[in-house]
Amino acid sequence: MTKPHVVVRLLGETSVRLWGLDLAEWQRRSWTKVGAAKVGTQDGRLLTGMEWVLSPALQRTLLATPGAALLVEDGSGSGQRLAALHLPDEVEADRFAGLVGQTIADPETLRAAGLTPGNVNDFADPYDKALRKREAPYALSLQETPPHKVERVLFKGSYKGVTDLVTKYAWPIPAFHATRLAARLHLSPNMVTTASLGFVCLAFWFFWIGAWLPGILAAWSMTFLDTVDGKLARTTMTYSRWGNIYDHGIDLIHPPFWYWAIFHGLMQAPGGPSDGLLFMSLGAILVGYVLNRLEEGFFMRYFGFHIHVWRPIDSRARVITARRNPNMLIFMLAVLVGQPGWGFVAIAVWTILCLVFHGVRLFQALAQPDKPVVWMES
């Protein structure tokens, strides 16, 4: 838990910008988001160089640990540089401010002052619960690492570790460049989310009239922007409770409308599966969608973490489970071979199989003698 009312003091100056922001402003947002009461260049008990970009887990630990002295290997290999220092209340700040950013040949000098020197691994847990992944903590100096490489690390850090195959494998490279562009244009994440909502409506209309290829293009555009808005929010520290509700609300609500629209378009088209089979497929998809979400919600509420991170098999299943992106991939492939109706039936079958799989996993978790834990934490 973060120690309350910790003020962060940024030392040094630089003209470097990150994600379209002056570095001092980026640092202010970054430290404020992880719990700092105030960030400035004058007073503060947590001292850090303006040049240092730290992983959020590392920032939180430093805020919560008076006496912590973060040492990072110097790029030249000559020793360890002091990147950050959380001074206890009884220690005079000006006595140590000059040491931040300097090479510390002997950490014992810090211990003699009642401080606790350590590296990034001493002060941060590699498991990120919010993003469902393990990631090595980092402390990067902008004097030693070019800004574009720091931005790549920050972007990678904003990505969920357990997600679907399209988001995981297709979007990272183009989404990085789109996020950089959006940041430099000073677009807000909610603007990007609103654009994605426009593509939700456009895809619905194309599916409704049976215009499959334009509908698929609009759908993939929406899913791409759905990736960009979250990454933009995390890299520019502009995420908010309302933004989270807006983004995830759209994600939760729109897929059934797309399935309904696809069903309507298929009913107007000649050939393919019978009307009765299409109707049963729609029912299976919609009921399965709701029940899958209920399974996940129950697991989360009962055990305190997502079902997809219980065991490695659950994380692998999340890559292809019957969510929007894998389902759209199935439908796109069916359209490309001229069988959209059978693609819709395939989505229904896959939805039922995934529902059964996650249901079995839920009952297995409930039957465990000990409370299940996240495999990445064990």
Automatic annotation (TrEMBL):
The keyword Lyase does not apply. GO terms for biological process: phospholipid biosynthetic process. It holds the Pfam family CDP-OH_P_transf. This is Putative phosphatidyltransferase. Gene3D superfamilies: 1.20.120.1760. GO terms for cellular component: membrane. GO terms for molecular function: phosphotransferase activity, for other substituted phosphate groups.
